[in-house]
Amino acid sequence: MMDVWISIILSVCAASTPLLIAATGELVVERSGVLNLGVEGMMIMGAVAAFATAQVTGNPYLGALVAIITGAAFSLLFAFLTLTLVANQVATGLALTILGLGLSGMIGEGFVGQPGVRMDAIDIPVLTDLPVIGKLFFGQDLIFYASIALVIGVAWFLFRTRAGLMVRSVGDSHSSAHALGIHVIRIRYMTIMFGGACAGLAGAHLSLVYVPQWVEGMTAGRGWIALALVVFASWRPGRVLVGAYLFGAVTIGQFHAQAIGVAIPAQFLTSLPYLATIVVLVLIARNRRLTMINTPASLGQPFVPDR
To answer: pLDDT tens-digit profile of 30-40?
Structure first.
């Protein structure tokens, strides 16, 4: 029985990791005052880049690195359009998602149905063999550990460093930050690239660990869930960690419910993660104080230095 529970928990970790990475990256982007709705597009590009690279080279770690670079490069398109050309952030983010879904489908067409190169779990002698906690804490894949370190690092950066204070000040009032001599556009470029890199790594986890194969549209709306997680967490990294694992548990829960033959239509069970997202957003929207307490005041607002 204990082995079953360990298996379920490991499945929840695997389902939660891409959500956690993508949401943490988007949190930093939004803390700088930019709303990037292209997370889904960057994730799917990271997924296909990781799978293709690992397939050609046989090295999943190189695939993850290429996914990070691909996500960051793809995010530069969004940054150029919204920061340099001052295009609408919402429309540009949606266009980025559509472009990513279409381009990834074209790039990955030749890889459909091919067995993937899986990123194996790390095996630490003695520690991995410990009962119960061994596989949970010392037998996970490298990206899982990177996701936990990412949350801790982002929390420290945003609230314990001068650079993090600058990012938050740009998000709260870009005009005041500019008046104080802070380079608003440069900071936003850097945060957008960081968010893109995180989205790319999240996509790599999907195609190298969670489902080690390439399937067109395999992100299946996870980018949108990551966006909802940022709001759910009220722009706090620790709450993103909790929210990601809650949504991961819902995702895995519906699979197990179907496996044991719960008398509920499979289509309804499959939709549970997305229904949970909608419910959470509705509940948060009803509490205006909770919504506004940590919301960056300049979120989604364009900035032009000479105005």
So the answer is: 999 999 999 99
Q: How far apart are CA 87 and CA 74, in angstroms?
A: 16
Distance CA 101, CA 107 (A): 10
CATH topology of domain 2-292: ABC transporter involved in vitamin B12 uptake, BtuC (1.10.3470)
Give the C-alpha separation, 247 to 204, whole Å.
19
200 within 8 A of 39, measured Cβ to Cβ: no
Distances (CA, A) of 71 to 1, 195, 240: 41, 8, 20
CA atoms within a 13 Å half-sphere pointing along the CA-CB vector of 205: 27
In three-state secondary structure terms, 217 is: coil
Residue range 283-305, pLDDT digits in tens: 766 766 666 677 899 999 999 88
Give, in order, the Cα–Cα distances in Å from 202 to each of 44, 49, 87, 299, 304.
9, 12, 26, 23, 32
H-helix segments, 32-59: 39-57
Predicted confidence (pLDDT) per residue in 112-153, tens digit = 888 889 998 888 777 787 777 777 788 899 999 999 999 999
Residue identified by tokens 């979120």 is: 299
Q: Are 183 and 29 in contact (CB under 8 A)?
A: no
Q: Which residue has the tokens 């690992």?
A: 54
262, pLDDT greater than 70? no
Helix ranges restricted to H, 126-236: 133-138, 142-160, 162-172, 174-179, 184-205, 222-232
> Model-level pTM?
0.93
Judge whether 74 and 196 are in contact, CB under 8 Å: yes
Q: Which amino acid is at 210?
A: Y
DSSP 161: S
Cβ atoms of 208 and 119 within 8 Å: the answer is: yes
